[in-house]
Amino acid sequence: MYLSEKPRPIDLYKEEGPSMARDMIIEVPTNGDLPRHLHHQQQQQPQPLQQQQQQMMLGESSGDDPEIKAPKKRAETWVQDETRSLIGLRGEMDGRFNTSKSNKHLWEQISAKMRDKGFDRSPTMCTDKWRNLLKEFKKAKHQDRGSGSAKMSYYKEIEEILRERTKSAYKTPTPPSPPKLDSFMHFSDKGFEDTGITFGPLEVGDCQPYGGRVITVKYGDYTRRIGIDGTTEAIRDAIKSAFRLRTKRAFWLEDEDHVVRSLDREMPLRNYTLHLDEGLAVKVCLYDESDHIPVHTEEKTFYTEDDYREYLVRRSFTSLREIDGYRNIDNMDDLQTNTIYRGVS
């Protein structure tokens, strides 16, 4: 590299005119196709400070200077103080959240209050952080029941919000406001969303709250809300009607803690799973009446004693007997699953 004049110190705070420009000669290796020497003359004039600042604000989109980058966004990492502030604000506004409506305006209020406390967090960032906290709470609760706080920093704070919401479900409201429903925690397969935990009263439409005591029952892919203000038989009929159970099969409800609850109006307001009695499956070998030769075998499932009696009457049997046995089976309770029987006339 050859310079046309001696190098001089550069003052970065002093604007230099065109007279300060220098010629530069660069020697480039050749492969036979390129000229042996490349003469490049460049005149560069520094820009005012204000114009440089404007270029920095433009970021990388111009592509002029890879060293000038746009200011980075607010870091997604939350410090403890702002996380606790978010949980506190969300807990204070808990009763105003309604999963059947848009909660956008509430998150905007939370974001504004966070800003007043010195934490610049948008409504979307607050919503995402809250949902992540709920996911962590669900994971800690399920992995280590009763001691989830050991694996989550804010476990107790979120648990307190749930506990307060649970208590309010049992408080008698002041007339004319009817009782409101708390459906408690619901963990969906799609993840632990904010709509997955109902902290506020569930409502239908604009201002039509549920009245009375209501539980949530799930069977397969279907979920129904069942009122339990009536008698046990009324609750049972309501469940059968809701899931279109046209059978005498026995069923029961099991809560999220795997506790089977009796059907009555005092049962806890929780999410339940509906279980149907699988019945008692047996095989009955049918014979030709004249030759006493087995014709075919049919499979039967009995759910109640009445089902068993009706089958005997329809087949003109007095009882069933094991193929290789001698004891007559008069009651359904004496039948053995997947055993082959024959009819006794």
UniProtKB/TrEMBL annotation:
<feature type="domain" description="Myb-like">
    <location>
        <begin position="70"/>
        <end position="134"/>
    </location>
</feature>
<feature type="compositionally biased region" description="Basic and acidic residues">
    <location>
        <begin position="1"/>
        <end position="17"/>
    </location>
</feature>
<dbReference type="GO" id="GO:0003677">
    <property type="term" value="F:DNA binding"/>
</dbReference>
<keyword id="KW-0238">DNA-binding</keyword>
<keyword id="KW-0539">Nucleus</keyword>
<dbReference type="Pfam" id="PF26214">
    <property type="entry name" value="Ubiquitin_GT-1"/>
</dbReference>
<dbReference type="InterPro" id="IPR044822">
    <property type="entry name" value="Myb_DNA-bind_4"/>
</dbReference>
<keyword id="KW-0805">Transcription regulation</keyword>
<dbReference type="Pfam" id="PF13837">
    <property type="entry name" value="Myb_DNA-bind_4"/>
</dbReference>
<dbReference type="GO" id="GO:0005634">
    <property type="term" value="C:nucleus"/>
</dbReference>
<dbReference type="GO" id="GO:0006355">
    <property type="term" value="P:regulation of DNA-templated transcription"/>
</dbReference>
<keyword id="KW-0597">Phosphoprotein</keyword>
<feature type="compositionally biased region" description="Basic and acidic residues">
    <location>
        <begin position="66"/>
        <end position="77"/>
    </location>
</feature>
<dbReference type="InterPro" id="IPR058943">
    <property type="entry name" value="GT-1/4_C"/>
</dbReference>
<dbReference type="InterPro" id="IPR001005">
    <property type="entry name" value="SANT/Myb"/>
</dbReference>
<keyword id="KW-0804">Transcription</keyword>
<feature type="compositionally biased region" description="Low complexity">
    <location>
        <begin position="41"/>
        <end position="55"/>
    </location>
</feature>
<protein>
    <submittedName>
        <fullName>Trihelix transcription factor GT-1</fullName>
    </submittedName>
</protein>
<feature type="region of interest" description="Disordered">
    <location>
        <begin position="1"/>
        <end position="77"/>
    </location>
</feature>
